[in-house]
Hints:
alpha/beta, 4-stranded parallel sheet, 54% helix
Amino acid sequence: MNLLEEKDKLVSKSKKIVNLYIVFLFSLVWLCYYNKFVFGVNRMAGGIVSIFIYYIIYNYFAKLYRAYKIATYKISEIIFSQFLAIGLADTVLYVECCLASHRYVDILPGLLTSGIQLAGMVVWVIYAKQYFVRYIEANSTLVIYGREDYEEFVWKLKRKYEHLFQVKECVRLGQCTAEELHNKIDLYDTVILYEITGGGRTGTMEYCIEHQKNLYITPKISDIILQGFEERTLIDTPLFKYEYNYLGARQYRTKRLLDLAVSITALLVAAVPMMATAAAIKLEDHGPVFFKQKRCTVNGRVFEIIKFRSMVTDAEKKGEVIPCTDRDPRITRVGGIIRRFRIDELPQIFNILKGDMSVVGPRPERVEHVQKYCEEVPEFAYRMRVKGGLTGYAQIFGKYNTSAYDKLKLDLMYIENQSFLLDLKMIMLTVKTLFTAESTEGFEEEKSKRIGKWDG
Protein backbone atom coordinates (compact mmCIF):
# COMPACT_ATOMS: atom_id res chain seq x y z
CA MET A 1 0.00 0.00 0.00
CA ASN A 2 1.50 3.38 -1.05
CA LEU A 3 1.43 6.51 1.08
CA LEU A 4 -1.57 8.03 -0.71
CA GLU A 5 -3.67 4.88 -0.22
CA GLU A 6 -2.63 4.70 3.43
CA LYS A 7 -3.70 8.31 4.02
CA ASP A 8 -7.01 7.80 2.25
CA LYS A 9 -7.68 4.69 4.33
CA LEU A 10 -6.99 6.55 7.57
CA VAL A 11 -9.23 9.49 6.59
CA SER A 12 -12.02 7.10 5.53
CA LYS A 13 -11.88 5.20 8.83
CA SER A 14 -11.85 8.43 10.84
CA LYS A 15 -14.85 9.72 8.88
CA LYS A 16 -16.84 6.55 9.58
CA ILE A 17 -16.01 6.67 13.29
CA VAL A 18 -17.06 10.29 13.80
CA ASN A 19 -20.17 9.79 11.65
CA LEU A 20 -21.27 6.81 13.72
CA TYR A 21 -20.64 8.68 16.97
CA ILE A 22 -22.48 11.90 15.99
CA VAL A 23 -25.49 10.18 14.39
CA PHE A 24 -25.77 7.60 17.20
CA LEU A 25 -26.03 10.31 19.88
CA PHE A 26 -28.60 12.20 17.83
CA SER A 27 -30.60 8.98 17.35
CA LEU A 28 -30.72 8.41 21.10
CA VAL A 29 -32.08 11.84 22.02
CA TRP A 30 -34.44 11.90 19.05
CA LEU A 31 -36.00 8.49 19.59
CA CYS A 32 -36.11 8.82 23.38
CA TYR A 33 -37.52 12.34 23.51
CA TYR A 34 -38.15 14.49 20.42
CA ASN A 35 -39.69 11.88 18.11
CA LYS A 36 -42.93 11.66 20.09
CA PHE A 37 -43.63 15.36 19.49
CA VAL A 38 -43.27 15.01 15.70
CA PHE A 39 -45.03 11.72 14.97
CA GLY A 40 -48.30 10.68 16.60
CA VAL A 41 -48.38 7.43 14.62
CA ASN A 42 -45.73 5.42 12.79
CA ARG A 43 -43.19 6.77 15.23
CA MET A 44 -40.49 4.21 14.48
CA ALA A 45 -40.67 4.77 10.71
CA GLY A 46 -40.83 8.54 11.22
CA GLY A 47 -37.87 8.39 13.59
CA ILE A 48 -35.77 6.45 11.09
CA VAL A 49 -36.59 8.98 8.36
CA SER A 50 -35.64 11.86 10.68
CA ILE A 51 -32.34 10.18 11.55
CA PHE A 52 -31.62 9.69 7.84
CA ILE A 53 -32.39 13.38 7.17
CA TYR A 54 -30.06 14.35 10.01
CA TYR A 55 -27.32 12.14 8.55
CA ILE A 56 -27.67 13.81 5.14
CA ILE A 57 -27.65 17.34 6.58
CA TYR A 58 -24.69 16.69 8.88
CA ASN A 59 -22.67 15.04 6.10
CA TYR A 60 -23.46 17.84 3.64
CA PHE A 61 -22.21 20.56 5.96
CA ALA A 62 -19.24 18.47 7.11
CA LYS A 63 -18.13 18.04 3.50
CA LEU A 64 -18.91 21.67 2.64
CA TYR A 65 -16.78 22.95 5.53
CA ARG A 66 -14.18 20.19 4.97
CA ALA A 67 -14.61 18.88 8.47
CA TYR A 68 -13.08 15.49 7.62
CA LYS A 69 -9.78 16.86 6.28
CA ILE A 70 -7.60 15.65 9.14
CA ALA A 71 -4.62 15.36 6.81
CA THR A 72 -4.87 18.89 5.46
CA TYR A 73 -6.19 21.25 8.13
CA LYS A 74 -5.08 22.27 11.59
CA ILE A 75 -6.84 20.83 14.64
CA SER A 76 -8.57 24.14 15.39
CA GLU A 77 -9.89 24.39 11.82
CA ILE A 78 -11.30 20.85 11.85
CA ILE A 79 -12.92 21.38 15.25
CA PHE A 80 -14.56 24.61 14.11
CA SER A 81 -15.79 22.98 10.89
CA GLN A 82 -17.28 20.09 12.85
CA PHE A 83 -18.84 22.57 15.28
CA LEU A 84 -20.62 24.29 12.39
CA ALA A 85 -21.76 21.00 10.81
CA ILE A 86 -23.09 19.56 14.08
CA GLY A 87 -24.66 22.83 15.17
CA LEU A 88 -26.48 23.39 11.88
CA ALA A 89 -27.74 19.80 11.66
CA ASP A 90 -28.96 19.81 15.28
CA THR A 91 -30.65 23.20 14.79
CA VAL A 92 -32.48 22.13 11.61
CA LEU A 93 -33.94 19.01 13.25
CA TYR A 94 -34.89 20.90 16.41
CA VAL A 95 -36.72 23.54 14.36
CA GLU A 96 -38.43 20.74 12.44
CA CYS A 97 -39.61 19.26 15.75
CA CYS A 98 -41.05 22.57 16.97
CA LEU A 99 -42.79 23.29 13.65
CA ALA A 100 -44.25 19.78 13.34
CA SER A 101 -45.57 19.77 16.92
CA HIS A 102 -46.83 23.41 16.73
CA ARG A 103 -45.26 24.18 20.10
CA TYR A 104 -42.02 25.01 21.82
CA VAL A 105 -40.20 21.80 22.72
CA ASP A 106 -37.69 21.76 25.55
CA ILE A 107 -34.27 22.44 24.05
CA LEU A 108 -32.20 21.24 27.02
CA PRO A 109 -31.99 17.54 26.01
CA GLY A 110 -30.82 18.63 22.58
CA LEU A 111 -28.25 21.05 23.99
CA LEU A 112 -26.90 18.37 26.33
CA THR A 113 -26.58 15.94 23.42
CA SER A 114 -24.87 18.60 21.29
CA GLY A 115 -22.37 19.20 24.08
CA ILE A 116 -21.55 15.48 24.26
CA GLN A 117 -21.27 15.33 20.47
CA LEU A 118 -18.84 18.24 20.46
CA ALA A 119 -16.76 16.88 23.35
CA GLY A 120 -16.36 13.48 21.71
CA MET A 121 -15.62 15.12 18.37
CA VAL A 122 -12.78 17.17 19.91
CA VAL A 123 -11.22 13.99 21.34
CA TRP A 124 -11.54 12.31 17.93
CA VAL A 125 -9.94 15.22 16.06
CA ILE A 126 -6.97 15.48 18.42
CA TYR A 127 -6.31 11.74 18.43
CA ALA A 128 -6.76 11.30 14.66
CA LYS A 129 -4.49 14.25 13.89
CA GLN A 130 -1.77 13.11 16.27
CA TYR A 131 -1.94 9.59 14.86
CA PHE A 132 -1.68 10.91 11.31
CA VAL A 133 1.32 13.12 12.04
CA ARG A 134 3.09 10.41 14.03
CA TYR A 135 2.57 7.37 11.84
CA ILE A 136 1.90 8.61 8.30
CA GLU A 137 5.05 9.67 6.49
CA ALA A 138 4.99 12.81 4.35
CA ASN A 139 5.29 12.34 0.58
CA SER A 140 8.74 13.00 -0.83
CA THR A 141 8.07 15.86 -3.21
CA LEU A 142 9.67 17.35 -6.31
CA VAL A 143 8.71 20.89 -7.33
CA ILE A 144 9.18 21.68 -11.02
CA TYR A 145 8.82 25.42 -11.52
CA GLY A 146 8.61 27.86 -14.38
CA ARG A 147 8.46 31.13 -12.46
CA GLU A 148 11.11 32.60 -10.19
CA ASP A 149 8.79 33.21 -7.22
CA TYR A 150 8.62 29.46 -6.56
CA GLU A 151 10.54 29.93 -3.29
CA GLU A 152 7.60 31.78 -1.78
CA PHE A 153 5.27 28.97 -2.85
CA VAL A 154 7.57 26.32 -1.34
CA TRP A 155 7.83 28.33 1.87
CA LYS A 156 4.03 28.39 2.18
CA LEU A 157 3.90 24.67 1.43
CA LYS A 158 6.41 23.86 4.17
CA ARG A 159 4.80 26.25 6.63
CA LYS A 160 1.33 24.74 6.48
CA TYR A 161 1.61 21.31 4.86
CA GLU A 162 4.99 19.99 5.94
CA HIS A 163 3.28 16.87 7.31
CA LEU A 164 1.98 16.13 3.79
CA PHE A 165 4.74 17.30 1.44
CA GLN A 166 8.42 16.83 2.16
CA VAL A 167 9.93 19.05 -0.51
CA LYS A 168 13.36 17.60 -1.24
CA GLU A 169 14.23 19.20 -4.55
CA CYS A 170 13.18 22.09 -6.79
CA VAL A 171 14.14 22.17 -10.44
CA ARG A 172 13.34 24.62 -13.20
CA LEU A 173 11.76 23.16 -16.32
CA GLY A 174 14.31 23.34 -19.13
CA GLN A 175 17.23 23.38 -16.71
CA CYS A 176 17.97 19.75 -17.57
CA THR A 177 17.19 17.37 -20.40
CA ALA A 178 13.89 15.48 -20.55
CA GLU A 179 15.67 12.23 -19.64
CA GLU A 180 17.35 13.82 -16.61
CA LEU A 181 14.03 15.29 -15.50
CA HIS A 182 12.30 11.92 -15.80
CA ASN A 183 15.05 10.33 -13.71
CA LYS A 184 14.43 12.92 -11.01
CA ILE A 185 10.66 12.34 -11.13
CA ASP A 186 11.24 8.61 -10.62
CA LEU A 187 12.78 9.33 -7.20
CA TYR A 188 9.72 11.01 -5.69
CA ASP A 189 6.16 10.14 -4.67
CA THR A 190 4.69 13.56 -5.52
CA VAL A 191 5.38 16.08 -8.26
CA ILE A 192 4.14 19.67 -8.22
CA LEU A 193 4.23 21.68 -11.44
CA TYR A 194 4.34 25.32 -10.40
CA GLU A 195 3.48 27.88 -13.10
CA ILE A 196 4.72 25.74 -15.97
CA THR A 197 3.87 26.83 -19.51
CA GLY A 198 4.86 25.67 -22.98
CA GLY A 199 5.27 22.26 -24.54
CA GLY A 200 7.30 20.80 -21.69
CA ARG A 201 4.26 21.01 -19.42
CA THR A 202 2.22 18.43 -21.35
CA GLY A 203 5.12 15.99 -21.67
CA THR A 204 5.93 16.20 -17.97
CA MET A 205 2.29 15.70 -17.00
CA GLU A 206 2.01 12.67 -19.27
CA TYR A 207 5.15 11.11 -17.78
CA CYS A 208 3.89 11.65 -14.21
CA ILE A 209 0.48 10.15 -15.01
CA GLU A 210 2.05 7.19 -16.82
CA HIS A 211 4.19 6.43 -13.76
CA GLN A 212 1.32 7.04 -11.31
CA LYS A 213 2.88 9.93 -9.42
CA ASN A 214 0.75 12.14 -7.19
CA LEU A 215 0.51 15.13 -9.49
CA TYR A 216 -0.43 18.72 -8.66
CA ILE A 217 -0.36 21.62 -11.11
CA THR A 218 -1.07 25.32 -10.88
CA PRO A 219 -3.58 26.02 -13.68
CA LYS A 220 -3.07 28.53 -16.45
CA ILE A 221 -5.84 31.03 -17.09
CA SER A 222 -6.71 29.14 -20.27
CA ASP A 223 -7.17 25.96 -18.19
CA ILE A 224 -9.74 27.72 -16.04
CA ILE A 225 -11.58 29.25 -18.99
CA LEU A 226 -11.97 25.74 -20.40
CA GLN A 227 -14.35 25.03 -17.50
CA GLY A 228 -16.85 27.34 -19.21
CA PHE A 229 -17.06 25.07 -22.25
CA GLU A 230 -19.69 22.39 -22.74
CA GLU A 231 -19.36 19.19 -24.74
CA ARG A 232 -20.79 19.14 -28.25
CA THR A 233 -20.63 16.67 -31.12
CA LEU A 234 -20.60 17.80 -34.74
CA ILE A 235 -21.50 14.67 -36.75
CA ASP A 236 -18.73 12.41 -35.36
CA THR A 237 -16.33 15.15 -34.22
CA PRO A 238 -16.18 16.02 -30.49
CA LEU A 239 -16.20 19.76 -29.83
CA PHE A 240 -16.15 22.16 -26.90
CA LYS A 241 -18.46 25.18 -27.14
CA TYR A 242 -18.07 28.20 -24.90
CA GLU A 243 -21.39 28.93 -23.20
CA TYR A 244 -20.92 32.47 -21.77
CA ASN A 245 -22.66 31.41 -18.54
CA TYR A 246 -22.31 34.88 -17.05
CA LEU A 247 -24.69 36.34 -19.67
CA GLY A 248 -27.72 34.10 -18.99
CA ALA A 249 -30.73 36.43 -18.55
CA ARG A 250 -32.77 33.89 -16.59
CA GLN A 251 -29.84 33.14 -14.31
CA TYR A 252 -29.26 36.87 -13.79
CA ARG A 253 -32.85 37.37 -12.59
CA THR A 254 -32.49 34.46 -10.20
CA LYS A 255 -29.21 35.91 -8.92
CA ARG A 256 -30.82 39.30 -8.33
CA LEU A 257 -33.64 37.70 -6.34
CA LEU A 258 -31.06 35.86 -4.24
CA ASP A 259 -29.15 39.11 -3.70
CA LEU A 260 -32.31 40.88 -2.48
CA ALA A 261 -33.38 38.00 -0.22
CA VAL A 262 -29.96 37.63 1.39
CA SER A 263 -29.28 41.36 1.77
CA ILE A 264 -32.69 42.12 3.32
CA THR A 265 -32.32 39.20 5.74
CA ALA A 266 -28.76 40.28 6.59
CA LEU A 267 -29.90 43.85 7.19
CA LEU A 268 -32.58 42.71 9.64
CA VAL A 269 -30.15 40.43 11.49
CA ALA A 270 -27.27 42.92 11.52
CA ALA A 271 -29.22 46.09 12.30
CA VAL A 272 -28.29 46.18 16.00
CA PRO A 273 -24.57 45.31 15.50
CA MET A 274 -24.37 47.94 12.77
CA MET A 275 -25.85 50.64 15.02
CA ALA A 276 -23.49 49.63 17.84
CA THR A 277 -20.51 49.75 15.46
CA ALA A 278 -21.48 53.19 14.18
CA ALA A 279 -21.74 54.49 17.74
CA ALA A 280 -18.36 52.99 18.71
CA ILE A 281 -16.60 54.55 15.71
CA LYS A 282 -18.12 57.95 16.44
CA LEU A 283 -17.24 57.80 20.13
CA GLU A 284 -13.62 56.80 19.56
CA ASP A 285 -12.43 59.77 17.50
CA HIS A 286 -15.60 61.69 16.54
CA GLY A 287 -14.77 61.14 12.86
CA PRO A 288 -17.09 59.97 10.07
CA VAL A 289 -18.72 56.58 10.52
CA PHE A 290 -18.54 55.46 6.91
CA PHE A 291 -15.69 55.22 4.43
CA LYS A 292 -16.39 55.41 0.70
CA GLN A 293 -14.09 54.35 -2.09
CA LYS A 294 -14.39 54.11 -5.88
CA ARG A 295 -14.40 50.54 -7.15
CA CYS A 296 -14.85 48.84 -10.55
CA THR A 297 -17.66 46.38 -11.21
CA VAL A 298 -19.28 44.78 -14.28
CA ASN A 299 -18.05 46.18 -17.62
CA GLY A 300 -15.66 48.50 -15.78
CA ARG A 301 -18.45 50.63 -14.33
CA VAL A 302 -17.27 52.67 -11.33
CA PHE A 303 -19.32 52.96 -8.13
CA GLU A 304 -18.68 53.97 -4.51
CA ILE A 305 -18.35 51.08 -2.10
CA ILE A 306 -19.46 51.75 1.50
CA LYS A 307 -17.63 50.46 4.58
CA PHE A 308 -17.45 51.27 8.25
CA ARG A 309 -14.34 53.38 8.76
CA SER A 310 -11.66 51.24 10.40
CA MET A 311 -8.69 53.60 10.01
CA VAL A 312 -7.89 57.11 11.10
CA THR A 313 -9.37 59.86 8.96
CA ASP A 314 -7.26 60.82 5.91
CA ALA A 315 -5.44 57.46 6.08
CA GLU A 316 -4.52 57.91 2.41
CA LYS A 317 -3.45 61.54 2.07
CA LYS A 318 -3.76 63.23 -1.29
CA GLY A 319 -5.33 60.10 -2.77
CA GLU A 320 -2.07 58.13 -2.50
CA VAL A 321 -2.68 54.36 -2.46
CA ILE A 322 -1.19 52.93 0.75
CA PRO A 323 -2.12 49.23 1.20
CA CYS A 324 -2.88 47.99 4.68
CA THR A 325 -0.16 46.00 6.46
CA ASP A 326 -0.20 43.77 9.54
CA ARG A 327 -0.36 45.89 12.70
CA ASP A 328 -0.88 48.99 10.57
CA PRO A 329 -0.71 52.03 12.92
CA ARG A 330 -3.52 53.71 10.95
CA ILE A 331 -6.06 51.12 12.13
CA THR A 332 -8.10 52.36 15.10
CA ARG A 333 -8.94 50.23 18.14
CA VAL A 334 -12.51 49.81 16.99
CA GLY A 335 -11.22 49.26 13.46
CA GLY A 336 -9.05 46.35 14.55
CA ILE A 337 -12.08 44.57 15.99
CA ILE A 338 -14.47 45.18 13.13
CA ARG A 339 -11.84 44.19 10.53
CA ARG A 340 -11.16 40.95 12.40
CA PHE A 341 -14.80 39.86 12.09
CA ARG A 342 -15.54 41.59 8.74
CA ILE A 343 -18.03 43.92 10.43
CA ASP A 344 -16.55 46.81 8.45
CA GLU A 345 -18.01 45.20 5.30
CA LEU A 346 -21.64 45.20 6.53
CA PRO A 347 -22.64 48.58 5.01
CA GLN A 348 -22.10 46.99 1.59
CA ILE A 349 -25.54 45.47 2.13
CA PHE A 350 -26.79 48.85 0.87
CA ASN A 351 -24.59 48.51 -2.25
CA ILE A 352 -26.26 45.14 -2.90
CA LEU A 353 -29.77 46.51 -2.38
CA LYS A 354 -28.97 49.36 -4.75
CA GLY A 355 -27.74 46.92 -7.39
CA ASP A 356 -24.10 48.03 -7.51
CA MET A 357 -22.94 44.67 -6.13
CA SER A 358 -24.03 41.05 -5.76
CA VAL A 359 -23.71 38.91 -2.66
CA VAL A 360 -21.36 36.53 -4.53
CA GLY A 361 -18.92 37.61 -7.21
CA PRO A 362 -15.35 38.82 -7.78
CA ARG A 363 -14.36 41.40 -5.21
CA PRO A 364 -14.63 44.92 -6.76
CA GLU A 365 -11.10 46.28 -7.05
CA ARG A 366 -9.94 49.85 -6.66
CA VAL A 367 -9.83 51.80 -9.91
CA GLU A 368 -6.07 52.38 -9.58
CA HIS A 369 -5.38 48.67 -9.10
CA VAL A 370 -7.55 47.61 -12.04
CA GLN A 371 -5.67 49.90 -14.38
CA LYS A 372 -2.30 48.48 -13.29
CA TYR A 373 -3.43 44.86 -13.36
CA CYS A 374 -5.03 45.16 -16.82
CA GLU A 375 -1.86 46.71 -18.22
CA GLU A 376 0.31 43.86 -16.98
CA VAL A 377 -2.15 40.97 -17.41
CA PRO A 378 -4.95 41.81 -19.87
CA GLU A 379 -6.92 38.74 -18.73
CA PHE A 380 -7.68 40.60 -15.51
CA ALA A 381 -10.47 42.35 -17.39
CA TYR A 382 -12.28 38.97 -17.63
CA ARG A 383 -13.32 39.22 -14.00
CA MET A 384 -15.34 42.34 -14.81
CA ARG A 385 -17.68 40.39 -17.06
CA VAL A 386 -19.85 39.90 -13.98
CA LYS A 387 -21.01 42.17 -11.17
CA GLY A 388 -18.64 42.48 -8.21
CA GLY A 389 -19.59 40.73 -5.00
CA LEU A 390 -19.39 40.96 -1.23
CA THR A 391 -17.93 37.47 -1.04
CA GLY A 392 -16.48 35.07 -3.57
CA TYR A 393 -13.87 32.46 -4.38
CA ALA A 394 -10.92 34.75 -3.68
CA GLN A 395 -12.33 35.78 -0.28
CA ILE A 396 -13.17 32.20 0.75
CA PHE A 397 -10.21 30.26 -0.62
CA GLY A 398 -7.60 33.02 -0.63
CA LYS A 399 -6.28 35.58 1.81
CA TYR A 400 -6.21 39.35 1.96
CA ASN A 401 -2.57 39.21 0.82
CA THR A 402 -3.06 36.61 -1.92
CA SER A 403 -1.36 37.81 -5.10
CA ALA A 404 -3.53 39.54 -7.69
CA TYR A 405 -2.69 36.81 -10.22
CA ASP A 406 -3.95 34.04 -7.94
CA LYS A 407 -7.03 36.10 -7.05
CA LEU A 408 -7.73 36.36 -10.76
CA LYS A 409 -7.56 32.58 -11.14
CA LEU A 410 -9.91 32.06 -8.20
CA ASP A 411 -12.40 34.60 -9.52
CA LEU A 412 -12.34 33.04 -12.99
CA MET A 413 -13.05 29.65 -11.44
CA TYR A 414 -16.25 31.15 -10.05
CA ILE A 415 -17.19 32.95 -13.27
CA GLU A 416 -16.80 29.83 -15.41
CA ASN A 417 -18.81 27.65 -13.02
CA GLN A 418 -21.34 30.07 -11.55
CA SER A 419 -24.85 28.89 -10.77
CA PHE A 420 -27.57 29.50 -8.23
CA LEU A 421 -26.46 26.47 -6.20
CA LEU A 422 -22.83 27.59 -6.28
CA ASP A 423 -23.88 31.00 -4.95
CA LEU A 424 -25.69 29.31 -2.07
CA LYS A 425 -22.59 27.24 -1.38
CA MET A 426 -20.40 30.36 -1.35
CA ILE A 427 -22.77 32.10 1.07
CA MET A 428 -22.64 29.15 3.49
CA LEU A 429 -18.85 28.93 3.22
CA THR A 430 -18.61 32.63 4.03
CA VAL A 431 -20.03 31.89 7.50
CA LYS A 432 -16.90 29.86 8.24
CA THR A 433 -14.55 32.34 6.59
CA LEU A 434 -15.76 35.15 8.86
CA PHE A 435 -14.07 33.42 11.79
CA THR A 436 -10.88 32.36 9.99
CA ALA A 437 -8.14 34.70 11.17
CA GLU A 438 -5.72 33.74 8.41
CA SER A 439 -7.98 35.27 5.78
CA THR A 440 -7.76 38.70 7.38
CA GLU A 441 -3.99 39.05 7.21
CA GLY A 442 -2.78 42.34 5.85
CA PHE A 443 -0.09 42.73 3.22
CA GLU A 444 3.42 42.05 4.38
CA GLU A 445 5.63 45.11 4.19
CA GLU A 446 7.57 43.79 1.21
CA LYS A 447 4.42 42.93 -0.72
CA SER A 448 2.85 46.27 0.05
CA LYS A 449 5.72 47.97 -1.77
CA ARG A 450 4.92 46.04 -4.93
CA ILE A 451 1.14 46.09 -4.79
CA GLY A 452 0.83 46.63 -8.50
CA LYS A 453 3.47 44.08 -9.45
CA TRP A 454 2.68 40.69 -10.89
CA ASP A 455 4.87 37.70 -10.21
CA GLY A 456 5.01 36.50 -13.77
